[in-house]
Design goal:
It is built from nine helices and 16 strands. The protein has about 325 residues and is an alpha/beta fold. The protein folds into two domains: about 5-110 and about 295-320, ornithine cyclodeaminase, domain 1, CATH 3.30.1780; about 125-290, Rossmann fold (3-Layer(aba) Sandwich). Helix 3 crosses helix 4.
Length: about 325
């Protein structure tokens, strides 16, 4: 058993150069393990103080690999005013048999990578394979991680960006151009999404947020991944989707407020991966992945990062 705890900072995690294929394979492995009762995933726990903060914890464990991951996260919309990221998190990794601590891992990196990874698992099955135009509503951390994932999976040529902050939007467009993509800044959200094959929404949650996105703006064949609890989408427009998938039906059933009308939901990510739920059936279907975040996604990414870090001696060892 290890006698040292490995600390993995954001820079050491980035040095691991995990690919989207690596992340997707790790998530799919745990999803299949869950269907065989070898992986366990608890519904996320949430605290929402009246001042607009959002606090969340996730818990997942597996027999293969033998890890347990706990993530604690705080979203505070006021953080950027103090020069801080709006979301900050930490993941602890334990041996799932003995309970011995293995690693402390930067949770911001895990959150970004696992969220994009979950979207990628869904997009493989719900998006058109020839998707070439991607639209982003919100241009922060999640937009960057999703762009990196989607450009590895689809023949992207152009991105369209809409954000309320010009600085983040312009920085995001520059990142896309460095990848060899054409980047267009959109004056309105509708202008950004209406001709896109892939749409990623990552609007910062706040008590003041008023829904402003209309699913009827989308063209036939579009796929949307909503990392923002579908909060910016008009609820009455969601019936425009032909197929809506959530991340976890069990978790969704435990939540007081559903992400979307349950009558519109076709299934969850486990059903998609195991083949029990159909993915895209025709080229002109509008499809959506609406999700809160799946704890086994944190486990899949944190566990993979820990294994890779051990193999290449990355991170800082701390005496327990």
């Amino acid at each position: 058993m290890p006698s040292l705890i490995r600390y993995l900072s954001q820079s050491s995690l980035q040095d691991l150069q995990l690919t989207t294929q690596d992340i997707v394979a790790s998530i799919e492995h745990l999803i299949l393990g869950r269907s065989q009762q070898q992986v366990w995933n608890a519904p996320k726990a949430v605290i929402s103080p009246p001042d607009g903060r959002y606090m969340m914890a996730t818990l997942a464990a597996a027999n293969d690999p033998p890890f347990l991951a706990v993530k604690a996260l705080v979203l505070n919309p006021d953080n950027p005013q103090h020069g801080l990221s709006s979301i900050n998190a930490l993941v602890t990794l334990l041996d799932s048999h003995s309970g011995l601590p293995l690693a402390i891992i930067d949770g911001n990196w895990v959150t970004a990578v696992r969220t994009a990874g979950l979207s990628a698992v869904a997009a493989k099955r719900l998006a058109r394979t020839d998707a070439s135009v991607a639209a982003f509503v919100g241009c922060g951390m999640q937009a960057h991680s999703h762009l990196q994932a989607l450009v590895e999976l689809f023949p992207l040529k152009q991105i369209r960006a809409f954000a309320r902050g010009a600085a983040s939007r312009d920085a995001f467009c520059r990142s896309a151009e460095k990848m060899g993509l054409s980047a267009i800044t959109s004056k309105t959200a509708q202008e950004a999404v209406q001709d896109a094959d892939l749409v990623v929404t990552s609007v910062t949650l706040s008590p003041q947020l008023v829904a402003f996105l209309n699913a009827r703006w989308l063209k036939s064949g579009a796929f949307v991944t909503m990392t923002d609890l579908a909060a910016p989408w008009l609820a009455e427009s969601m019936s425009a989707f032909d197929r809506i998938i959530v991340d976890d039906l069990e978790q969704e059933a435990s939540m007081p407020n559903p992400l979307v009308d349950p009558a519109l939901v076709c299934g969850d990510l486990t059903g998609l991966v195991t083949g029990k739920v159909a993915g895209r059936c025709t080229d002109d279907e509008r499809t959506a992945f609406v999700f809160r975040g799946l704890a086994l996604g944190d486990l899949a990414v944190a566990g993979l990062a820990y294994q890779r870090a051990c193999e290449c001696s990355r991170g800082t060892l701390i005496d327990d």
